[in-house]
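Run folding on both entries below.
>entry_1
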Amino acid sequence: MCALSDDYFLINDIIRPSQWGRVNIDHTLLWKEGILVIETKNNIGEVKFFWDNWAFGFSPVYQAKGNVRYIQNLIEDSGILLLGSPIIEGLVVFPNAKLSFKGKPSIHVMNIAEVPSYLSGIKGGNEYSEDSILKIAKMIMESSRKSDYDEGGFLGILWQDFRDFFS
């Protein structure tokens, strides 16, 4: 396990709307070099990947790629950043599994021990300003709160009950 410096802004458990109902984004890491959208899986033992697929149903690679698209669309629609902005990419992390691969997945899939060196190796041409990072983080958290209400999450259910009681 590694500790992140204050140069990183980590948002956990973002709720977003999806065609399948509510979906969560496990972690989003923002820093001057880019944005990393992280899907974590707690499988133990050996986990085999066949390119982007695995044997346990819907692949976390596809889940991470969809979450990256969601974050990219939020940022593009907001107008906070210009074209040619720093990196936004997905990552799948397994804290407890031994990974094996037949073919290379389209995004990085790794054990948690590999994450620190992976982060230190990311070097974008452009950098996010501290102001942009804070604006993007605020926008992501607000979209999560909004989708929780809109999609009938726990808070949305309470709000609906509250509205119905006073109607």
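>entry_2
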Amino acid sequence: MPVQPANLLMYMFMNILIEDAEKLEYLTSNSQWTKEPAKGKNFVATRIAFAAAKREPIGKFNIVAYITESQQFINMDHGRGQGVDEAGAVNPLPAAA
């Protein structure tokens, strides 16, 4: 009979989420943002979540594994999305010729 690690079952309840690093919100399946990690869209792999996050109109993001049983987070990766124009941002003046 094969031997399985005792913590194998725990990883069956792990979700891979995109986290907005500044707002600490999680992307949902309908492209909204929520403070509740259990409502976040679960990606099948970190590289798929990373590629999706790069296309989102957010600044800094984290790819996190969320273990539902213990409500723990494990940081897997991070990066920058497409970014958003900040309201009231001042455009620099062109240089004098």
